[in-house]
Design a protein that fits this description.
- With 291 residues, this protein is α/β, with parallel strands linked by helices.
- It has a single domain, classed as Collagenase (Catalytic Domain) (3-Layer(aba) Sandwich).
- It has ten helices and eight strands.
- The strands form three sheets. Strands 1-4-8-7 form a four-stranded mixed beta sheet, covered by helices on one side.
- It is globular and about 45 Å long.
- The two termini are 29 Å apart.
Length: 291
């Protein structure tokens, strides 16, 4: 993937090396101590649920309130991981900025927070084990770059384009927020039974995969970023984080009704859909006859 010559985003907050707000001595979260938070997060992961879903429901929203969260600093010029993330984020800004302009809208750029270990967001406290995530409450993407190594060593999806797909997927959730999709789906999920709520979550995630494909197609057409093998890297990453593959490796069996992100085949299919068409209008997973 050719990313070195591109511009860098100004929307990076580097909080690595900074203690998350509320992580000091005697920290509490809505009356629950730090140990309780860790137990809840562990239970959530064992159940295949995003820990933020549970943590955000705790009174107080985690350790401290969002307004006390420091903004971080700009990453160093010789920090290759940070420069890579900044370059990919800039590509998403260029792509979605143009796509929104063509639709007569203005794209509001998200910030991306680099952290290590744990981080406070407006959606609550999260640890590295949560993986990269997007918080619609503050419209920020959160990323511990150690996940890139985990993507390679644990999930078997190496390569810079695989890592870029992860960033583009999270930015896809930001696009959903700007378009009002996130709010509509959240309202529907609150009124639905568990199976329906899970299916709606899958549709959200697959649409974000499709949006990641739209990004890749757009920046390759305009900047020529793709190299031989990049598409395979992206497909490998999409497959690696499929619910069926993760459940099989952690539980030993697969429970489709518990899927929240989609199967490996579904994730690859929708990433490919966006990549081949380059059309965000073709990413309507909610109306698709088959996921």
């Amino acid at each position: 993937m050719r990313w070195q010559m591109g511009r860098r985003s100004q929307n990076i907050e580097d909080r690595r090396g900074m203690a998350p707000v509320g992580m000091g001595r005697g920290a509490k979260a809505g009356g629950i101590g730090g140990a309780g938070i860790l137990v809840l997060a562990l239970i959530a992961m064992l159940l295949g649920v995003n820990p933020l879903t549970i943590l955000s429901g705790i009174p107080g929203g985690g350790f401290g309130e969002p307004e006390s969260v420091p903004s971080g600093r700009a990453p160093a010029a010789n920090d290759e991981d940070a420069q890579f993330v900044s370059a990919v984020l800039a590509q998403t800004e260029d792509a979605w900025g143009e796509i929104f302009r063509q639709g007569g809208q203005t794209y509001r750029q998200p910030s991306l927070v680099l952290f290590e270990g744990a981080v406070q967001s407006a959606c609550g406290m999260a640890g590295s084990a949560t993986g990269p995530f997007y918080c619609p409450a503050d419209q920020k993407v959160y990323l511990d770059t150690s996940f890139f190594r985990e993507l390679d060593q644990k999930f078997g999806a190496p390569g810079d384009f695989a890592a870029a797909y992860v960033i583009a997927h999270e930015v896809g959730h930001h696009v959903q927020t700007l378009l009002g999709i996130s709010r509509q789906v959240s309202d529907l999920r609150q009124r639905s039974d568990e199976a329906t709520a899970n299916r709606l979550s899958v549709m959200m995630e697959l649409q974000a995969d499709c949006f990641a494909g739209v990004w890749a197609r757009h920046v390759d057409d305009t900047q020529g970023i793709l190299e031989e093998g990049d598409i395979e890297e992206g497909m490998a990453a999409a497959s690696a984080v499929g619910d069926d593959r993760i459940q099989k490796s952690t539980r030993g069996y697969v429970v489709p009704d518990a899927f929240t992100h989609g199967s490996s085949q579904q994730r690859m299919r929708w990433f490919r859909q966006g990549l081949q068409t380059g059309d965000a209008n073709g990413c309507d997973t909610f109306s698709a006859p088959q996921l």
